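Quick check before the chapter quiz. The format below is the same one you will see on the exam, so make sure you can read both the input and the output lines.
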Amino acid sequence: MSWTRNIYDQTDKPVGRTTLRKLIVAFIIFIIPVVAFAYIADEVVEGDTMQIDTRILLGIYHQSTPVLNEIVLHITGLGGVLGVAGLTAAAIGIFMYRSRWQSCLQIAAGVAGAALLNVALKLIFERDRPNLWQHLIFENSYSFPSGHAMLSSALAFSFVVVMWHTRWRWITFSIATFYVIAIGFTRLYLGVHYPTDVLAGWCVSAAWVIVVAVVLGSFGFGKRGKKLKK
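Here is the expected output.
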């Protein structure tokens, strides 16, 4: 495939100033969520976030209504395993039809990797879910970091990456931002995650998607950047 040839082509060429700048930017974008996750994780382990986490959840709970309950229950499914899998499959299908193989890989690797990381991190931290009121849905896995937040943001961030070199970048960014925030809010509204679970999930996915983007060259290094602009 062309994307594999491009990878080998780049390894034979000296790193130019433009490529170096992009690598530096990618590293900065990567390190920020990594440091943020490390800080959040440390605070969670120490129990220092419990008070603010609980206060935020109770504040949201007091605004709940039967109508909002129904709306949130429908929206939150779009960030679950089945919802994200369906959206991912649809996106990959569209990009395959347009022969955008690198975009397919970016999205597939971004989402699949985030899912695996989420399972591993939940087992490492073993944080129990909030139990502040009777939940409208049943969740039996650990709480930290939020799987819905990680999966939805991995999909959204991957979309932003593959569309960044097109004229649709800001529309994609706006829709992706709304989607990520909406899914994160539903997890808090339903009381099945603490705010720090959601924030941590976003951080991990952001870092992972950047790693995938650098490996695949989705930031537009060399020839692939020009190809994405078409």
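If your answer matched, good. The CA atoms of residues 130 and 192 lie 6 Å apart.
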